[in-house]
Amino acid sequence: MLSTAEALSTLLSAASPINGTESIPTLDALNRVLSADVISPLDVPPMNTSSMDGYAIRTEDLTTDSNRRLPVSQRIPAGHAPEPLKPGTAARIFTGATVPPGADAIVMQEQTEAAGNEVTILHSPAPGEWITAQGADIRSGSIILPAGTRLTPQALGLAASVGCAELQVRRRVKVAVFFTGDELTMPGEPLKPGAIYNSNRFTLRGLLEKLGCDVTDYGIVPDRLDATRTTLREAAQAHDLILTCGGVSVGEEDHVKPAVEAEGRLSMWQIAMKPGKPLAFGAVRRAAQQTDAATSAETFFIGLPGNPVSSFATFLLFVRPFVLLLAGMRTVAPRALSLRADFTQKKADRRNEFLRARINAAGGLDLFPNQSSAVLTSTVWGDGLIDNPPNHAISAGETVRFIPFSELLN
Ligand code: AMP
Ligand code: MG
């Protein structure tokens, strides 16, 4: 059996960013991945600006105590270009307005007394006081968002703040997905004896869509070798990854394994994890005419186990980072928290357990009582997974490694 870390590193070493980029409006680029660095064409702020309503002065004019009364030589609202500040005068200035050349400090209006066309300065500012220097936030020519960044709302705002109307992004990762199992029924259809609903279709499609993939859903493929091979061949043509669910165990009703072996290549992994364990990784050949220098001759294949919690957990731990690397991201590891276990789990498992737990009001972790890989309730109840190493029992009060769903579901 492979350890979780061995399986993950083997899987991720096979992934590299897909070919194909496009330029799209910044307003439409939410969640897309940058294929090129965004370089600022300007300084931000683009000029020295006042961060207070008050008066712009030359600090050298205030060296003597007697001379603190200055004539007001100009008025500068935000958005207007100032004249240079005449020596021995002050300029009335407002927040966000350009500091006039020659001025080296702003005195806030609460520390002044205005009378007619003159102002008395009641404070001795240090040079630079209440001035935001040109380029203090961003320097022209600097990289503000590196290639590989997935665009959050705040990243879009940052790009817009330097005037970027369009962004270079990688195309979306195209994923084909299908499900195997003659017992699977779609909600809305009557449930025959022995049948179950195809819940994984909903979970996996939601997970893929959250990652920003273009998903083609082939639905339920009958548990037959020929049907499985035909679907694989078709799906291989226009996709980067084929994801299946179910049928990767070794039962004789499991046709995914021989089908992928016939249409490409496959490694069957037994991973020492719970839930999870079987995971299939390989590739399906593309038809020759579809292949050119820019396109790979193969489409990746990942087969997930059918048990709902197993497929959910193996998706989060393996498929998610794999897809994000294809999408062009550079950092894909979820960040974990160290939290206190507020429960005891006496029995150590020889596998790496990923326990569904949630954060309680005291900031510790409660464990969902039923950790069976068929119990989907645990994934909705929980806030994340405790990554419990093999052969390790958990005592209350102990610090454990917790990976929140907030890290794994985006
Ligand atoms: P398998 O991996 O095909 O041996 O399936 C393992 C278990 O997961 C069986 O109980 C299946 O009925 C169940 N299962 C397989 N596929 C799905 C699915 N798409 N939705 C819900 N349960 C499934
Ligand atoms: Mg099956």
Automatic annotation (TrEMBL):
Keywords in alphabetical order: Magnesium, Metal-binding, Molybdenum, Molybdenum cofactor biosynthesis, Transferase
First-tier enzyme category under EC: transferase
Domain (MoaB/Mog): residue spans on this chain: 176-325
Pathway: Cofactor biosynthesis; molybdopterin biosynthesis
Catalytic activity: adenylyl-molybdopterin + molybdate = Mo-molybdopterin + AMP + H(+)
Pfam families with a match to the protein in the record: MoCF_biosynth, MoeA_C, MoeA_N
The keyword Magnesium is annotated on this UniProt entry: yes
SUPFAM superfamilies per record: MoeA C-terminal domain-like, MoeA N-terminal region -like, Molybdenum cofactor biosynthesis proteins
Keyword Transferase found: yes
NCBIfam families documented for this protein: Glp_gephyrin (NF045515), molyb_syn (TIGR00177)
Function text: Catalyzes the insertion of molybdate into adenylated molybdopterin with the concomitant release of AMP.
Family: Belongs to the MoeA family.
The protein's name: Molybdopterin molybdenumtransferase
